[in-house]
Amino acid sequence: MKKFSRRRGLITTELSGYEVELLSSLINQLVELVSDGEPEKYASDAGPDNFSELVRELEVDPDQPEEPSDPVLKRLFPNAYPHDAAAASDFRRFTERGLRGKKITDAMTVLRRLAETEQGEHPLRIPAEETEAWLRTLTSVRLAVATRLNIADAEAADALSDLPDDDPRSFMVSVYDWLGFAEETLISAL
């Protein structure tokens, strides 16, 4: 991957076919995880299918926050009120569906642009109005990778940077670093 740069109002870079495939795979996995395998259910312009589904969602017991069990989802949708179960549940009930929908919509925007490269045959071109969707998606994917690697701070990331090549985590550490490079150069190109 080359650094992102700005040309004629577009943010551009060149990706290899492998990089397009890798990033697309990671984003598709994120969509699958965030949507519980049903991305259409969380489409940003679609609400619950019917009134009874909306009522069911609102009747969740506010004293029992529905925190996700997956550590990645906990990191992507943290508990807003860790010391107040009722407030945490209310916050989750009224915001999580929209947050999930936004992540999925952003991810689909990124996937469309990646597909336009035809597996890296053409440069990646991102219109200015889509850069925030790209940044949010790259951040979400990087947070997911960091969580799976147990990276919670810079010290943990530094400790993993010295892994031997035969350690199974070393590939994902390189992906984590690569995503950081992509985010950093995208921000610099703005």
Report on the structure:
By secondary structure, the chain is mostly helical. 58% of the residues lie in helices and 6% in strands. The protein has seven helices and three strands, in the order E-E-H-H-H-H-E-H-H-H. Strands 1-2-3 form a three-stranded antiparallel β-sheet. A hairpin with a 2-residue loop joins strand 1 and strand 2 (10-13). Helix 1 (17-34) runs antiparallel to helix 4 (85-116) and helix 4 packs across helix 5. The radius of gyration is 18 Å and the shape is globular. The chain starts with a strand and ends with a helix.
In a nutshell, what does this entry contain?
With 190 residues, the protein is mainly α. The chain has helices at residues 17-34, 51-58, 71-76, 85-116, 131-148, 154-160, 169-189, and strands spanning 5-7, 10-13, 124-127.
